[in-house]
Write a structure and sequence with these properties.
two-stranded antiparallel sheet; five-stranded mixed sheet; Heat Shock Protein 90; alpha+beta; 2 domains; 15 helices
Length: 443
């Protein structure tokens, strides 16, 4: 069965789909031709000899049954069997040879060789570039030439065709000239070579296009990866500078608090570095990072800040972009809670809705007017911008990002992404995060 295997070139799915479609079309043409030949044979049956009618039945009957059987057995499948693209042309070529040979036996060799049915060899070869591999096309081309050459040899040995050298005498005396049959063999061989080369050319074009497409995809992937890494690197210094400024402000007034902040900052950066090479992490690990960040901000705001998490059961293993929660919560604290004179809260929720994960970050801060003026004056809002950009790169149109003021005051950010569950590591970060943030909410 090595013959029916594909060539060394593995065609991409798009080429396999096109070849499958071409094979279906060719089988439709085969069915039309067989039905026409059958109808013609039935019309001429009363005027033909018994032997000619028998030859028609022996050739057209199996061909008609084979053609109809394909529709009944395989055409409901999404893809036809691969070997069918080799068996069908073998059956077609053999049927053409059988018809010519049958007419030669039933009537005369001259009638058989001058019949236009010989042109069906070229029709079969013409379909090879769109439906077969190079190996199959080469085999069918060689098979066509060998079968017709063997047929001529048999007719000559069996004395079923009278031969003359002069082509004019051959026409006048109803004879066959070797020059005409040799010319047929030459044309059949040339057309077979052209058909095989055309098949190779199609595969070569597809191969080059596949390489270029894969290379472009790799370049785009590297560019997107580099851009995502750049966005993540922008977030880390952004938070780091804010935390260090807060720690420096506490050194003179509250050295122990400044020391706690630096310690929490060290733990936070250690966790960030452990996920720096990953674009997506389980939500549980994001909660761990958020816990460290809230601990840092708790040193600065003390009783003025309340951060709580409401995470639905079963979504802690959901994969989310790394460094997703901390920049958004930081944005809420810095631009919503920070300007307030009194206490404020930030709430993080995560819910499963069908096949999606919805994450919301709500605050009761100063509102959108003051928030926008502060962001324009200080050039902030980096967390929202980077988050939106990363979501576009990671999920395309498969995500939703909404941000705006709440009716009851404050600001809200809602993110909806496809729900994909990952594997939770047997670490205590996520559990500790949930416990700590719940405790903060209760305080």
């Amino acid at each position: 069965m090595q013959l029916f295997a594909t060539s060394a070139f593995a065609p991409p799915p798009s080429l396999r789909v096109r070849r499958d479609k071409a094979e279906r079309i060719l089988n439709g043409l085969r069915a039309a031709v067989v039905f026409l030949l059958t109808a013609s044979a039935l019309m001429y049956a009363p005027h033909l000899s018994r032997t000619l009618n028998t030859a028609n039945v022996l050739v057209l009957g199996p061909m008609l049954a084979w053609t109809v059987a394909q529709y009944l057995i395989w055409y409901r499948r999404p893809e036809l069997p691969d070997w069918l693209s080799a068996v069908n042309p073998i059956v077609d070529v053999t049927a053409v040879t059988a018809i010519i040979g049958g007419y030669a036996v039933a009537q005369s060799g001259v009638l058989a060789l001058r019949s236009p049915i010989f042109l069906m060899y070229f029709v079969v070869l013409a379909g090879r570039p769109v439906a077969s591999s190079v190996r199959k096309a080469a085999f069918i081309s060689a098979l066509s030439w060998l079968e017709y050459a063997a047929l001529l040899f048999w007719l000559w040995v069996a004395n079923r065709v009278p031969l003359v050298i002069n082509p004019i005498d051959a026409v006048q005396l109803a004879r066959v000239t070797p020059l005409d049959e040799a010319a047929k063999l030459v044309l059949l061989g040339i057309f077979g070579l052209v058909s095989t080369y055309a098949t190779y050319w199609v595969e070569d074009v597809v191969r080059e296009a596949s390489k270029e497409s894969a290379e472009r995809q790799r370049v785009v992937t590297r560019l997107v990866q580099a851009e995502l890494d750049t966005l993540k690197l922008q977030l880390n210094p952004h938070f780091l500078f804010n935390a260090l400024n807060s720690a420096m402000a506490l050194i003179a007034t509250d050295p122990p608090a400044a020391e706690r902040m630096v310690s929490e900052l060290s733990d936070f950066l250690r966790l960030v570095l452990s996920t720096s090479s990953e674009q997506e992490v389980p939500l549980e690990r994001e909660l761990g990072l958020l816990d460290r960040y809230v601990a840092i901000q708790r040193v600065r705001f003390q009783d003025r800040l309340t951060v709580s998490c409401d995470i639905e059961d079963g979504v802690r293993a959901a994969m989310v972009p790394s460094l997703l929660l901390q920049p958004l919560v930081e944005n809420a604290i810095r631009h919503g809670i920070g300007p307030r004179a009194g206490a404020g809260y930030v709430q993080v929720t995560a819910r499963r809705i069908g096949d999606t994960l919805t994450i919301a970050i709500l605050d009761d801060g100063v509102g959108v007017t003051t928030r926008r003026s502060r962001e324009r004056s200080r050039g902030t809002g980096l967390g929202l911008i980077n988050t939106r950009t990363r979501l576009i790169h990671l999920y395309g149109e498969g995500h939703e990002f909404e941000s705006g003021p709440r009716d009851e005051g404050g600001y809200a950010v809602r993110i909806t992404i496809p729900l994909r569950l990952g594997r939770l590591l047997p670490a205590r970060i996520g559990t500790q995060a949930a416990d700590n943030l719940t405790a903060v909410g209760q305080s």
